[in-house]
Amino acid sequence: MEAVPGVGGDSPVLLLDDVHKIYNPGPLQVHVLKGVSMAVEQGDYVAIMGHSGSGKSTMLNILGCLDIPTAGRYLISGVDVSELDQNQLAEVRNRYLGFVYQSFNLVKRTSAQANVELPLVYAGVPKAERRRRALTALGLVGLGERTHHMPNELSGGQQQRVAIARAIVTGPSVVLGDEPTGNLDPTSTAEVLQIFGQLNAAGRTVVLITHETEVADHAKRVVVLTDGRISSDVRNAPVQGEPPNLIDLTGAEPREAEEAIA
Ligand SMILES: Nc1ncnc2c1ncn2[C@@H]1O[C@H](COP(=O)(O)OP(=O)(O)O)[C@@H](O)[C@H]1O
Ligand SMILES: [Mg+2]
User: Fold this and answer.
1) What are phi and psi of 78, to 5 degrees?
2) Which of 78, 139, 158, 159 is the most buried (most CB within 10 A)?
3) Pick from 42, 31, 10: which is nearest to 175 by CA?
4) Nearest to residue 96, comparing CAs of 4, 220, 195?
5) What pLDDT score does 122 carry?
6) Could you write out the DSSP letters of every residue in 83-123?
7) Which residues contact 90 (CB under 8 A, 6 or more apart)?
8) b/e map of 150-171 (b: 16 or more CB within 10 Å)?
9) 3-state SS of the chain: helix, strand, coil percent to 5?
10) Which of 22, 32, 68 to probe ligand 1 with, by most ligand atoms within 8 A of CB?
11) Tens-place pLDDT, residues 200-257
12) SS3 67
């Protein structure tokens, strides 16, 4: 990326370096992150676990550039995001980061396709190209047949798949999810986990917050946050290659394969 010097090379794609977060500095301050350091390599699949209030969302919001550290550094591909101007930050977010929320956060009374196109509208992509890319992303999450449905005409699992399509439509190298299966039934959870698994198998870095061991079982690495500090960091599979528990869809019925994404 020309506009952002130093991007690329051998740097980890995400690097938290002794990050602290203090809300409401002063007598009523809340010290939420107390020196978190974590490097994430391109292609890794990380599950972040921990009790409610341990700082997981705060950490993910910093990783997603939705919030900034009070102290410490956050680098994306070797670049300290605090040194970027607004335009460079927007470019880095567009190129590197896709965010998926627990509650989907789709725009109501707006079709699946229009929801997925939204990040491209902000990025100034022309209409025909937006449409093409949105349809590709919806096809990738198995919703190629439901592009004109409104969110309230879709199941929770389908809405979350639209949200994933929206997160990946700009082609980010990292997908972040804050309890993305937290509102889903077991069947939809399994479908959404297969999609994250496929995205990771295709080379995208995935970082998910979760309470559920079933979700963590699909990750290559499990990080536990306890009271604002990393208390455990375990690797279950190599950074490169397929993540654990990815269903091999070769040989599955075409419709099943399409439902679960190609
Ligand atoms: N904007 C905020 N202002 C003040 N306190 C906050 C804010 N956001 C979160 N907190 C507090 O920080 C702590 C960690 O929150 P959070 O990162 O959401 O934890 P988790 O996602 O692990 O449940 C909680 O005690 C929460 O109340
Ligand atoms: Mg949270």
Assistant:
1) 85, 0
2) 159
3) 42
4) 4
5) 86
6) G--HHHHHHHHHHHEEEE-TT--PPTTS-HHHHHHHHHHHT
7) none
8) ebeebebbbbbbbbbbbbbbbe
9) 35, 25, 40
10) 32
11) 999 999 999 999 999 999 999 999 999 999 999 999 999 999 999 998 655 444 444 4
12) coil
Pairing type for strands 205-209 and 45-49 reads parallel
Summarize pLDDT for 116-127 with one digit per residue, the tens: 999 999 889 999
In 3-state terms, what secondary structure has residue 164?
Answer: helix
Q: Which residue has tokens 């998926």?
A: 100
- Return the ligand 1 atom nearest residue 178 CA: 21
> Is the CB–ligand 1 distance for residue 24 below 6 Å?
yes
Q: Which uninterrupted H or E stretch holds 231?
A: strand 229-235
Q: From 16, 57, 101, give the residue whose CB has the most ligand 1 atoms within 8 Å, as the site to mutate.
A: 57
Q: Which residue has the tokens 């990771």?
A: 200
Task: Specify the residue with its C-alpha closest to ligand 1, atom 12.
Answer: 32
Pairing of strands 205-209, 174-178: parallel
Q: Which domains does the chain carry?
A: 42-65+90-260 (3.40.50.300)
Q: Could you tell me if the CB of 54 is within 6 A of ligand 1?
A: yes
Please give the structure tokens belonging to residue 37.
Answer: 């350091």
* 16/40 Cα distance (integer angstroms): 9
From the list 167, 157, 111, 184, the residue with the least C-alpha distance to 260 is 157
